Automatic annotation (TrEMBL):
PROSITE patterns: SHIKIMATE_KINASE. InterPro entries: P-loop_NTPase, Shikimate/glucono_kinase, Shikimate_kinase/TSH1, Shikimate_kinase_CS. Residues 1-20, 328-352 are annotated as: Disordered. This is shikimate kinase. Pathway: Metabolic intermediate biosynthesis; chorismate biosynthesis; chorismate from D-erythrose 4-phosphate and phosphoenolpyruvate: step 5/7. GO terms for molecular function: ATP binding; shikimate kinase activity. GO terms for biological process: amino acid biosynthetic process; aromatic amino acid family biosynthetic process; chorismate biosynthetic process.
Length: 352
């Protein structure tokens, strides 16, 4: 099936529009926001004696519940540089705020996500598309659908990497003319200059993660799903100097990132995946990465808007004299007209 047909199918199955409040609500976890409570020991306070008189033997089943909010541990990290990343209610409000400002100036511009495998391009891209009311495409998934849902690893094995990259470039080419899209690309899509020509029609965003973080993620998902890592693991025998699968993934990802870094640096926006506090090992939560991405895109768009406004803010020196200026006749044209008039006045020479 051609990728353009897949695009039409995707558009026909688009979900109904949601309000900005509904999109912000997607970030709120379904948990109770009430403060936890602790049960205090029984005492002989006056309130207890009153309870005895009123309820008799039922008072033996009651307990005094005290809420000491100042002593509660809410799970947040003290000194967190971005405290809203651990408070989803606050984070959702900030997402709505930046989204309301961004959508006025984004004007349907496509957003392309690039980065290494394990950087979460697909996961972040889906959440971003829901928030912006955009359609989402993953180039790997489109290629799989076009090949009867064969996994990427099988396409690599049967057709080779060059064939896969050609398919990827074709998908990028066909998606680029459309608007209101979030597109997650493969990690190696940045290696071809023609892909950049299409992606730079929109905003290119690099999800930049540390090699150790990326290695932990891809090992958790399984190396067999990553053709380049699976080949490296088979060649190494799973050893990697005693590090096992994690060592193989770390070594291969470090080499790939070093090779691709100069291409990734051509992105319009760079967003770090670094986590803080309790998220230091797993990386920043998806919603937090999306907010960082929205903020970075908004800063880029607003900077471009200010630049365009600055270009239009110019003055013409001596403009106050324009309304007093008259059209001056060209001296050369005046001389030519005088010569022509003199020639007409003399007329033809008389004959004898």
């Amino acid at each position: 099936m051609a990728s353009s047909q897949l695009l039409q199918r995707h558009k026909s199955l688009a979900s109904p529009a949601r309000s900005p409040q509904a999109h912000a609500a997607l970030l709120r976890p379904v948990v109770s926001r009430h403060a936890p409570f602790t049960a205090a020991t029984w005492n002989n306070a006056p309130a207890t004696r009153i309870s005895d008189r009123l309820w008799g033997r039922r008072a033996e089943l009651s307990r005094l519940v005290l809420v000491r909010a100042e002593q509660l541990d809410d799970g947040r990290t003290p000194g967190h540089p971005y405290p809203w990343e651990e408070d989803f209610d606050l984070l959702s409000d900030k997402v709505k705020e930046v989204t309301d400002e961004l959508t006025k100036d984004l004007r349907g511009c496509n957003i392309w996500l690039i980065g290494m495998m394990g950087s979460g391009k697909s996961t972040v891209g889906k959440m971003l598309s829901n928030t912006l009311k955009y359609a989402f495409f993953d180039t790997d998934s489109v290629i799989e659908l076009a090949h009867d849902k064969k996994p990427v690893s099988q396409i690599f094995a049967e057709e080779g990497q060059e064939y896969f990259r050609n398919c990827e470039s074709q998908i990028i080419k066909e998606l680029s003319p459309y608007r209101n899209l979030v597109i997650a690309t493969g990690g190696g899509a940045v290696l071809r200059p023609e892909n950049w020509g299409y992606m730079h029609l929109g905003i290119v965003c690099w999800l930049n993660g540390d090699v150790d973080l990326l290695a932990r993620r891809v090992v958790r998902d399984g190396l067999e799903k990553r053709p380049l890592l699976a080949a490296a693991s088979a060649a190494d025998g799973g050893g990697a100097e005693g590090g096992g699968a994690l060592g193989v993934a770390r070594d291969k990802l470090a080499a790939l990132q070093e090779q691709r870094r100069r291409y990734y640096e051509n992105a319009d926006v760079v967003v770090t995946l670094e986590g803080y506090g309790k998220d230091a090992e797993a990386g920043a939560p998806t919603a937090a990465v999306m907010y960082r991405l929205l903020s970075a895109i908004n800063e880029k768009v607003q900077a471009k808007k200010r630049e365009q406004a600055q270009r239009m803010n110019f003055t013409i020196e001596g403009a106050e004299q324009l309304k007093n200026m008259r059209t001056m006749e060209s001296p050369a044209a005046a001389a030519a007209a005088a010569a022509a008039a003199q020639g007409e006045g003399e007329g033809p020479a008389p004959t004898a």
